[in-house]
Amino acid sequence: MTYAPTSIDSLTAQFEALHAERERTWPAAQLQKNIDQRQALVRQYAPDTHISAGEKLPEFALKNVEGGTITPADLGEAGTVFIFFRYAGCPACNIALPHYQRTLWPELKRRGIRLIAVSPHVPEGLIDIETRHDLGFTVASDTDNHFGNALGITFEPIDKPSPPPANWIGDLTGTQSWILPQPTVILADKDGIVQFVEVSPDWLKRTESETILAHLTRQQDAA
Predict the structure, then answer these.
(1) What are the tens digits of pLDDT across the range 152-187?
(2) Where is the Thioredoxin domain (predicted)?
(3) Measured between alpha carbons, how far is 58 from 68 in angstroms, rounded to an integer?
(4) CA dihedral (162, 168, 171, 174) positive or negative
(5) What is the pLDDT of residues 71-124, one digit of tens each?
(6) Strand partners, 194
């Protein structure tokens, strides 16, 4: 039976259920390959290779699904949360983004904080995930992973079949490469100074909304 998350499930619980379903339905070799890739990324993860709190965001120019461009000049006056995800067809991303829509976006909107979900998937491909989940926040494309690379959050998978299969990552992103961003949450102020960053090398373990909101509350209390 396909797992259907409820509005009160944590991301952790939803990803555990997704993995349990795969244990029941995937061939053993396919499942092990998925596990090995995620474990390898965790082993390789080095916090000193990506942007840190206190540093300024690099220049960026993201393309939203309506065809507009988002630059540092468009950062929210009360701050901006960037959520980096892999691509529109990623099962874990299709759990994470609607979860953030339910549990994070309403409070960010109340506080006047902008939320931008970012993927290297080409803009026309991102329309699908935005409309499928009726997302109220901005969904934008990071062309050629320029922003993700500058932030130090991208990776290449271990398994890179040659020739690549139809509809492979390089076709979806338009990069003709396997490079993707690791799921990442970044909170920046209106001047682009990073206040919070969390990178999740294992894409089945991502930042909970409560973690982001707790940081915002601590930041507000300290102001």
Answers:
(1) 999 998 888 888 888 899 999 999 999 999 999 999
(2) 51-221
(3) 19
(4) negative
(5) 999 999 999 999 999 999 999 999 999 999 999 999 999 999 999 999 999 999
(6) 188
Cβ burial of 165 (10 Å; 0-12, 13-18, 19+) is exposed
- Write out the DSSP string of 47-64: GGGS--TTSBPPP--EEE
User: CATH for 11-222?
Assistant: 3.40.30.10
- The answer for 170, left when phi > 0, alpha when psi is -120 to 50, beta otherwise, is alpha
Long-range contact set of residues 140-143: C-beta below 8 Å, sequence gap at least 24: 140/62, 140/63, 140/64, 140/65, 140/70, 140/116, 141/62, 141/63, 141/64, 141/65, 142/60, 142/62, 142/84, 142/118, 142/181, 143/61, 143/62, 143/63, 143/174
d(CA 63, CA 6): 31
pTM above 0.90, yes or no: yes
**Angle, vertex CA 85, rays to CA 129 and CA 146, nearest 5:** 110
Task: Give all strands of the β-sheet with 138-141 in edge-to-edge order.
Answer: 69-70, 62-64, 138-141, 114-119, 80-84, 184-188, 194-199
At 13-47, the pLDDT tens digits run: 999 999 999 999 999 999 999 999 999 999 999 99
Least Cα distance to 11 among 218, 216, 200 occurs for 200
Q: Would you give the distance in Å from CA 124 to the centre of its chain?
A: 18
120 contacts 87 by C-beta, under 8 angstroms = yes
Whether the per-residue pLDDT at 6 is higher than 60: the answer is no
Residue found under tokens 């009160």: 8
